[in-house]
Design brief:
With 482 residues, the protein is of the alpha+beta class. Helix content is 37%, strand content 22%. The strands form four sheets. Strands 15-12-14-13-17-18-16 form a seven-stranded antiparallel beta sheet, with helices on both faces. It has a five-stranded antiparallel beta sheet with strand order 5-6-10-8-9. Helix 9 packs antiparallel against helix 14.
């Protein structure tokens, strides 16, 4: 049995008063996930200031049999950074590790600590005439380590890929306290397994990311954001194909949302206005960009894309941003969907993906099936149509009690939605990770061979199970049987 008292004393000696605390007033705010779905307990909160301290602390935890729950900005969507209720884990925060170690403008690369906040990284790159091509609504709190650990997506995946595509080097502390260092990027490196790819998306179950080298791109010269009214999500799919064909690499993002989502945002945000005058069943947010060498023909491209779309009846109405402020206002409407829906009441959120060419079909068939099967619910979809990732949310019936409904009918709804997604050849987690929320569903629906490999890798790299227990990796069938 772990000697927690001696562990607490050793942790305080190792990290100092700023680096380790068991004060409930400080620890408790970090024990509930962003959505408020999971609340746990912890021995304390560790906040090391360097990779060396992380390594020593992990070794200390291993020696005392104390499990570790790594946490970035605590903005995850699947409960992956929340401890269980035993109170026998320690939360490991890397927020004090927030330094930019190196920025190479010639190589278009930046090396930073895992605790650097995404927005800070973006602003640092911009100061040097560069940009980091990944963004999301939680950019003000999400950390680089958390984004890597969950292989985060966002609104620019259509053109630039997920976080995995942005990472060219990584540093991580393993379960035995050893430091895996591969921060120097090489265009070609054929020395066996690409171990950094194994750590990306592993949700802190195989190692704790402490730093990374990321790729940067030149700043864009100009951008235009169009808000488009559409009769259906199938029409949005046709418009997407049109934009891809005509705009090519200039197409930076393509988001969709239903009228219900827009109405929720307008009710939630003070002084917000609909970009269009009329009523439309669906809306698309289309972002086109030009690099500094192509701005002289950019306006002509915008005109061709949307005038031909109008001529071909691919849209009902559209407005194109006339300023950067207007472009940001359009994006604020999109980024406010999640908090606006949260204010309405309980909902089951599903971060799902299916093949891109079947996403419209999925939404149009799954929504009425869910609403028919579960009386009083409302199924809506919004998100990244261009990469086949829709956030498919099922709103609770009127009068449902938050917490109780999710734990009862909500679970049945999620299982039903996940079955539909699997039948379409899709994934129950497109960009938010598995965490604890979807671990059992992954075990139920995942490929047995793939699940077996995940368990073997976890056992090999973390044989004592001290890293983020109960997350991501489903229990083996025999282990989950009472």
């Amino acid at each position: 049995m772990a000697d927690f008292q001696s562990f607490q004393a050793a942790a305080k000696d190792l990290l100092g008063p700023r680096g380790y605390t068991s004060d409930p007033d400080i620890v408790d705010p970090w024990l509930t996930d962003w959505r408020g779905r999971f609340t746990g307990a912890a021995l304390g909160l560790a906040s090391p200031s360097s990779t060396e301290e992380v390594a020593k602390f992990v070794s200390l935890c291993g020696a005392h049999g104390v499990t570790i729950v790594p946490q970035g900005g605590n903005s995850g969507m699947s409960g992956g950074a929340t401890p269980d209720q035993t109170g026998e884990s320690v939360v490991l925060s890397l927020r004090r590790m927030n330094s930019i170690r190196k920025l190479d403008t010639a190589a278009h690369q930046i090396t930073c600590d895992a605790g650097v906040v995404l927005q800070t990284l973006q602003e640092t790159a911009e100061e040097h005439g560069l940009r980091f091509p990944l963004t999301l609504g939680g950019k003000g709190s999400a950390t680089i380590g958390g984004l890597i650990s969950t292989n985060a997506g966002g609104t620019q995946v259509l053109r630039h890929g997920t976080m995995r595509a942005q990472v060219v080097g990584i540093e991580a502390v393993l379960a035995d306290g050893e430091v895996f260092s591969s921060l120097v990027p090489l265009k070609k490196d054929n020395r066996g397994f690409d171990l950094k790819q194994l750590l990306i998306g592993s949700e802190g179950t195989l190692g704790i990311v402490t730093a990374a080298t990321l790729r940067l791109l030149p700043q864009i010269g100009e951008r235009r954001v169009a808000w488009v009214g559409l009769p259906s999500i199938s029409a949005a799919r046709k418009l997407l194909m049109h934009c891809e064909a005509m705009a090519g690499d200039a197409l930076e993002g393509f988001e969709v949302l239903s009228a219900h989502s827009l109405d929720a945002v307008l009710a939630h945000l003070p002084d917000a206005r609909s970009p269009l005058q009329g009523q439309h069943a669906w809306h698309a947010l289309v972002e086109l960009v030009a690099n500094t060498s192509g701005t002289h023909v950019f306006d002509d491209l915008i005109e061709r894309v949307f005038s031909t779309a109008m001529e071909q009846d691919l849209l009902e109405d559209a407005v194109i941003s006339g300023s950067e402020a207007q472009a940001e206002a359009f994006w604020q409407l999109r980024d406010s969907i999640a908090p606006a829906e949260r204010a309405i009441g309980p909902a089951m959120q599903h971060d799902i993906s299916v093949p891109v060419d079947r996403m419209a079909e999925f939404v149009e068939t799954a929504s009425p099936q869910v609403e028919s099967r579960f009386s009083g619910t409302r199924a809506i979809g919004f998100g990244h149509l261009g990469d086949g990732n829709i956030h498919f949310h099922v709103l609770a019936p009127a009068g449902a009690t938050r917490g109780e409904w999710e734990a009862s009918q909500g679970k049945e709804i999620s299982a039903y939605v996940h079955d539909l997604v699997t039948a379409f050849g899709g994934s129950i987690s497109a960009e938010h990770g598995i965490g604890q929320m979807k671990r059992d569903e992954l075990g139920r629906l995942g490929d047995p061979v793939a699940l077996g490999l995940m368990r073997k890798i976890k056992q090999a790299l973390d044989p004592h199970g001290i890293l983020n227990p109960g997350k991501l990796v489903p229990l083996a069938p025999e282990a989950s049987t009472p």
